[in-house]
Structure formats: C-alpha cells, structure tokens
Amino acid sequence: CTFSIFLFSFYRKSLSRSSVRSRMSLRSPKAYNSLQKGAVIWDPKPLQVKKIFEALKKGLNEYLEAHQAELDYLSGRHKDTKRNSRLEMISQITPSLFPLQKQIRSVERYIRKLEFHISKVEELDEAYCIQCRLRDGATNMKHAFSLSPSTKASRESLVELYKNFQECTEDMCFIERALEVHLGEFHLKMKGLVGFARLCPGDQYEVFVRLGRQKWRLKGKIETDDSQTWDEEEKIFIPTLHEKFEIKVTELRGLATILVGVVTCDSINFFTTKPQAIIVDITELGTIKLQLEVLW
C-alpha cells in the first residue's frame, strides 16, 4: 500500500505541470481571479459536466460542418464566376468576384475560430477526465486504507491521499469554471402560452424565467382575437454547468396573483445549430403550456 501511495503521489506530481491551474492558455486572470489555490468553490459534478462536454462538442462540430458546407458552396461559385469571366474575355477578375471573395474570407476566419474553440474544449475535456480518474483513485485508496489496521505509516499515507484528493477537486472546479467561458449564449424568444379553453380574452399573466442569478420577468395579455401581447419578447442567458432553467407562471387578477405552476428545464439539449421550439407543461395536467424558442 505504501508503494501504491508513492506511485500515486509521483503520478499526481508529474501531472501537476499540465494542470489547468498551471497552464495560462486555459484560464484568464480576469475570469478566474476568484478561484484561489486551496479554495474549493463548489463540489465538482463529473456526470453532469461530462454530458455537457459531449453536447458542447457535438454542437460546435455541427456549426463547423455547416460553415464548411457554406465555404464549399461559395468556393464553387467563385470558380464558376472566374471561369465565366475568362470565357467572356472581359477581365481576369470581374467586380462580381469581390463580394464572393469577401464572403469566403469571412467564413474562413469563422471556421478558424470554431476550430480553435473546439480544440480548447477538447483540451479541457482531456484535463477533466485525468483529474476525475485521479480523484477516483484517491477515493478508492482512502477506502482501502480505512479498512486496514491503523499505523503511523497508514495515517501519513491517508494525509497524503487527502491532500491529493483536495488538489484533484480544486483542479476539477477550475476546469468547470474554464468550461463555462466556452458555452456561448442562449437566445430565448417568447412564443406565448398555449391553453386552449384555459386562456380567455383579458387574462393577464406573468412569466418568470431564472437561470442561476440570471432573471427574466415579462408580462402578457390575452387579446380579444386570442392573440397575445408581451412587454418583452427576447432575452439572452449565459449557460451554466450546474443550474437548470426555472420557469414560473402566475395569473394576474387585479391586485391578486394566482400561481399557475413552476417547472424546471434542463439546457443540455440546447447546444445545437438550429433554433428549437420548447413547449413546457406549466400545470400538472398540461392544460397550460409555455412555448419558447431557443437559439444557441
């Protein structure tokens, strides 16, 4: 067991140079100045974070494929235009080529940014997996030592294991904070309530959407032609790793308010290129639904 502790400690120290805290390319001082060595901000959530890693990489690759297809299309048009200009013997480069060239350069720049973004996410994913495995190893070894007779050597080994466990936990928290910088934005658009007979002209509702500390409160009214008017229709939310969308709908009746329902919605499926129509059951029986459109 003592030799195993030595190996674990050696492996842990050998990886410390590649730790996310020691690589300046993975963190920005402005973004992470609240994370100090020795202070754990929250408990890491490996299962949730791994799901977000996969969803994020899938969504980024979808964007990359879409823009690569656009680049191929523009490049094909560019070649056709140049060939036609030579056939017409007008000039080697016609004025119609310049907008195409500008579009091509713009798409190429965006593709390079996407490729860099994907590489950073993959780098964080790899570092997170390493720290997660080391943390699990420390946990298993602590359990093994707890079942053996207590000696001075075993107590010293347990202290070292606890230290390694804490270092892995801090690194995982650091990576989680670094990952949040790469999650982009969610653009939420209010599409209205769906309630059939439950919604009557003149009814007024308030919808409250919260994601962590981010809040969106808007009021709407059912008009005589069954259309709906809302005082605000769009809101941008910054995705987080550990919070879900919480949606609360209340009906306004004069000075009184009646709670219609409160639901939560996971955002892990929002990391995709196409706008998504989200219909959420506000009441338990689904008699009133809330329809949102989410664009990442």
Automatic annotation (TrEMBL):
InterPro entries given in the database record: FAM65_N, RIPOR3
Top-level taxonomic group: Eukaryota
Segments forming domain FAM65 N-terminal: 12-296
A Pfam family reported for this protein in Swiss-Prot or TrEMBL: PL48
Signal peptide, first to last residue: none
Family: Belongs to the RIPOR family.
Protein name: RIPR3 protein
Native organism: Centropus unirufus
